[in-house]
Amino acid sequence: MSSNTGNRYVLGQNQYGKAENRVVKITRTGNDGSWHEIRDLNVSVALRGEYRDVHLTGDNANCLPTDTTKNTVFAFAKEHGIDSPEAFAIRLAKHFVHSQAPIHEAQIRVEEYAWDRIPVPTRRDQHSFVRSGQEVRTAQVTYGGNSGRLEVISGLKELTVLNSTNSEFHGFLKDKYTTLKEAHDRILATKVTGRWAHSVVASGDEDFDWDRSYKDVKRRLLEAFADTYSYSLQQTLNQMAERVLDGCPTVNEVRLNLPNKHHFLVDLDPFGLKNDNEVYYAADRMYGLIEGTVHRDGVSPVIATSDWVTG
Ligand SMILES: O=c1[nH]c(=O)c2[nH]c(=O)[nH]c2[nH]1
User: In the CATH hierarchy, which fold is given to the domain comprising 148-311?
Assistant: First the structure.
């Protein structure tokens, strides 16, 4: 969106909303309500539409307060529950666009923090949890706009994985600045940020099982990482994305950002010791950053390539 102010400047893309609403929903089940389920989300709202006046003239008539968007997130958790990050985000996005004429498009971004149950064999009630440290689940829903599209991008971040062998890197281009030694057996480690876009079919299906889809994609990413005999992290990236597209017909596109978490062999010669690929120094920076999108033929990619992902 852009609008000519009649002056020298043009108001370009703009959006607003409340970011990082941390909503935790406890659902009590069982006869006496002593079995608890938990969903722990970080929800950000961005609204787009007729906001020329609020920026240019100070007329706030079209401006639903960010405070209201925050309240809506918490009220919806109570009124509708949280079935999954995607379902919750779709419900919110549709609500904002359908309830206020000036709002043309809504984008909801969600992070979910997972909790595992602490098993207590002596207790029938279950309300104790330990934060599960593996990864953060993400979802981004965009609804509305000129085409009235519903776009759902699921994802994860901070999923750290390591292969202690079956990784080589050699035969690369060399110039006068190249000092890297060819590696025929190295550690391959990365902290996966992955995003995958769902087809319209899945996005529009109110009964679509987002949690199951998420588990399926994550399992495939991990299995492909473990199965691939790697000649570069780029090749591993492609294998991981293809494994998802192979097994998940409702996923059209996968984007992966893979920092190469370098492990350098430590020189033990000064101590008269031989380092037979056993002792490494794990460097936390700098890191190679390998990024790419793999999508079905004929599908136009929608996942932003400009998002800055750090290692
Ligand atoms: O898997 C890798 N890909 C690269 O492009 C690269 N570059 C580098 O220095 N090490 C590696 N490893």
Answer: Urate Oxidase (3.10.270)
Q: Tell how far the Cα of 187 is from the centroid of ligand 1, in angstroms.
A: 12
Report residue 219 as tokens: 């399992």
* Residue 260, ligand 1, Cβ within 6 A: yes
Q: Name the residue ranges covered by the structural domains of the chain.
A: 12-147, 148-311
Ranges in the chain, pLDDT < 50: 1-3
Q: How much distance in Å is there from the Cα of 306 to the middle of ligand 1?
A: 21
Work out whether the CA dihedral 291, 304, 109, 56 comes out positive or negative: positive
Pocket probe for ligand 1: among 167, 172, 187, the residue whose CB has the most ligand atoms within 8 Å is 172
Amino acid at 229: Y
Instruction: Report the C-alpha gap between 13 and 19 in whole angstroms.
Output: 18
Domains 12-147 and 148-311 share a fold: yes
CB distance 5 to 56 below 8 Å = yes
Provide ipTM, 2 decimals: 0.99
Distances (CA, A) of 183 to 171, 261, 265: 10, 15, 11
Assess contact for 107 and 90: CB atoms under 8 A. no
Residues involved in catalysis = 18, 66, 262
Q: What is the pTM of this model?
A: 0.94
Q: How far apart are CA 192 and CA 236, in angstroms?
A: 12
Residue 189 CB less than 6 A away from ligand 1: no
pLDDT at 1: 46
CATH superfamily ID and name for 12-147: Urate Oxidase; (3.10.270.10)
Place of tokens 């998420």: 214
